[in-house]
Amino acid sequence: MSLGLYVHIPFCSAICNYCNFNRGLFDAPLKERYVAALLADEPRREAMGAAARSLARERYGWPDIAARLEAVYVRAVGAPGVRAAA
User: Fold this and answer.
1) What are 18-29's pLDDT values in tens digits?
2) If 31 and its partner were Cys, which of 1, 3, 11, 40 is the partner (CB 3.0–4.6 Å)?
3) Between vectors from CA 28 to CA 26 and to CA 32, what angle results, nearest 5°?
4) Spatial CB neighbours of 9, under 8 Å, sequence gap ≥ 6
5) How confident is the model over 34-63, as pLDDT tens digits?
6) d(CA 51, CA 35)
7) Distances from the Cα of 74 to the Cαs of 15, 35, 47, 78, in angstroms?
């Protein structure tokens, strides 16, 4: 399975009240320096990518999703194979 990574560049033309990302109003020169610094630091860029892939697999891989779904099922209707008391 292929994973993607969203990198939030915190420079917006308007501030949305629902956004919980770090953000600031658009500043073109600062944005250029920010992006250039991220792209120039290959070890940090690779480390960020590896950490993001690991976190995505850990939180959103099928074994974890299946375990969470089973936990919800057990809380809702009881343990598999056990009849709920009438």
Assistant:
1) 777 666 677 888
2) 11
3) 120
4) 31, 34, 35
5) 888 888 989 988 888 888 888 888 877 888
6) 19
7) 42, 46, 38, 4
The DSSP symbol for 4 reads: -
Rounded distance, CA 43 to CA 64, Å? 29
State the pTM of this model. Answer: 0.44
Q: Which tops the pLDDT comparison, 86 or 67?
A: 67
CB contact at 8 A, 24 and 34: no
Q: Is 78 left (phi over 0), alpha (psi -120 to 50) or beta?
A: left
Place of tokens 């073109």: 28
User: What CA–CA distance (Å, rounded) separates 40 from 50?
Assistant: 17
